[in-house]
Design a protein that fits this description.
With 302 residues, the chain is of the alpha/beta class. 39% of the residues lie in helices and 28% in strands. The protein folds into 2 domains: 5-173, PAS domain (Beta-Lactamase, 2-Layer Sandwich), CATH 3.30.450; 191-301, STAS domain (Transcription Regulator spoIIAA, 2-Layer Sandwich), CATH 3.30.750.24.
C-alpha cells in the first residue's frame, strides 16, 4: 500500500451513511496523527474483519471520546454546511448536534472574531488548501473561547469534503497573556520612564546593562518620545555599574536614535570616580552632554 494513503471515517453527505475503511489520498499536510496510526496498514485490515455495525460503533466511540472537536462539511451543498460533528464539538460549544448539522461553521463567530483571520480561512477553503488558524469563537451561552481550527480538504470518489478539527486553547492564551504582562511589568520596573514636565522625561539605569537591555531601552525611549513629544530625555547612570566594557558606546547609540527624532539626550550621574574611569576611553565623552546630577540637567532645560 502506498505510504501516502490514509484511511478515515467518511460521512456520505446525501444520506449520512458512514463508510468505514475508505481510502483517501492526502491533499494537504496530512490528517490527524491518531487517524493515520489507527487506519494505516495492518490495523485497518484487522478492523475490517469486524462486522460493519461494530466498526461504525467503534469509530463513533473513538471520535466522540476524542478531546478534539471534529467536523465534516460538504462544499457541494449551498453554504458548505456541517454534515457531521462529534460529541466533543457539542461539549465544547454547547450546541447540540441537531443545532449544528446543516449550518455553516460561521455561527460560532461573534463581535470579537478577527475579520482578517476569517478572510484567511475563507480564502483557504475557496482554494481548497489546508490551513490552521486561531480565532475567537463563542459558545451557545455567549462565552468566548480561543479556537485553534485546522481545516483539511479531501476527495473521495471525485467528491470534495472538508474535515475541521477544533481545540479550545483558551487556557494556553490566558497563560501566555499573563506571562507577557509579567514580562512587561518586570521590564517597566527595570527601566521606568518618568515624565518630569511637558518637554522632559528621565530614566534611571540600575545594575548591569547588557546589550539586550540597551536595545530594550532604545526601543522604549523612541516609542515614548513618539507618543509623548518630549524634546529632552535624561538618562541617569548613578546606579549603573560595569566591570569591563564601558556603556558609552551604547549611550551614544541611544543618542543617535533620539537625535533623529528631534530629541536631545542628557546623561547624569557622572561622579568624580565615574569621570576618571571614563577619561581616555576610545569613544570618549565628547559626544554626550553629561552632568553630575539630574538637577543640573533640569536647569539646562529651563
Amino acid at each position: 500500500m502506498p505510504s501516502d494513503l490514509d484511511f478515515l471515517l467518511i460521512i456520505d453527505s446525501v444520506n449520512y451513511r458512514e463508510v468505514a475503511g475508505a481510502c483517501l489520498k492526502k491533499t494537504g499536510s496530512g490528517f490527524m496523527a491518531h487517524r493515520r496510526q489507527l487506519y494505516r496498514g495492518q490495523e485497518v485490515n484487522e478492523l475490517n474483519t469486524l462486522p460493519q455495525s461494530m466498526q461504525r460503533k467503534l469509530l463513533e466511540a473513538m471520535l466522540d471520546g476524542s478531546r478534539v472537536a471534529a467536523l465534516v462539511t460538504d462544499p457541494a451543498q449551498p453554504d458548505n454546511p456541517i454534515i457531521y460533528a462529534n460529541r466533543t464539538f457539542e461539549k465544547m460549544t454547547g450546541y447540540s448536534l441537531e443545532e449544528t448539522l446543516g449550518r455553516n461553521c460561521r455561527f460560532l463567530q461573534g463581535e470579537g472574531t478577527d475579520p482578517k483571520t476569517v478572510a484567511k480561512l475563507r480564502e483557504a477553503i475557496h482554494s481548497e488548501q489546508p490551513i490552521t488558524i486561531t480565532l475567537k469563537n463563542y459558545k451557545k451561552d455567549g462565552t468566548m473561547f480561543w479556537n485553534r481550527l485546522t481545516v483539511e480538504p479531501f476527495e473521495v470518489e471525485n467528491r470534495s469534503f472538508f474535515i475541521g478539527t477544533q481545540t479550545n486553547v483558551s487556557v494556553e492564551f490566558q497563560q501566555r497573556r499573563e506571562l507577557e504582562d509579567k514580562e512587561l511589568e518586570i521590564e517597566q520596573l527595570m527601566l521606568p520612564i518618568m515624565r518630569i514636565d511637558d518637554g522632559l522625561a528621565a530614566v534611571s539605569l540600575i545594575g548591569e546593562m547588557s546589550p539586550q537591555r540597551f536595545s530594550v531601552l532604545t526601543q522604549k525611549l523612541s516609542e515614548y518620545v513618539q507618543s509623548s513629544g518630549v524634546d529632552t530625555v535624561i538618562i541617569d547612570i548613578t546606579g549603573l555599574f560595569w566591570d569591563h566594557e564601558s556603556p558609552i558606546s551604547s549611550l551614544l547609540a541611544v543618542q543617535d536614535v533620539l537625535r533623529l527624532m528631534g530629541t536631545q539626550l542628557f546623561v547624569t550621574g557622572i561622579s568624580p570616580k565615574v569621570a576618571r574611569s571614563l577619561t581616555g576611553l576610545q569613544n570618549g565623552m565628547s559626544g554626550l552632554r553629561t552632568f553630575s546630577s539630574i538637577q543640573q540637567a533640569i536647569q539646562m532645560t529651563r
